[in-house]
Amino acid sequence: MLELLKNWLVNTAAPVTLPLDDGLGEVIAMFRYDPVEDPELTSDESITNMGELRIRLISGSNLPAVDRSGTSDPYVVLQVNGEVVWKSDVIKETLNPKWNQQAILYVRNRNNTALTVEVFDWNKIQSNELL
């Protein structure tokens, strides 16, 4: 979360492009962070430190082809501090998926929240493969 905020990738007018590790394609998304009030604040938290993160997953491009057909069946997984909190739909047989989906995550402490965006290839029989 803090890296998204530091790099001005939150509350932008246009979508941002997130490159995948090792240059293996990219994901296009929008992030909106809105602080919210919580009456149960601890001493190290403040009103501006917690809120809702709205993620609009738009598309992916140039993803790796891992299926025999020369395509993939990609989907996105969002994790907060290592816990899976959201999964997108699987878009079958493409390297350039269009998701146009939205997720809303509650952030208790943006300074200590790690958001991980992972793209997987869905497989019917074998384990899903990290792209």
From TrEMBL:
This is Tricalbin-2.
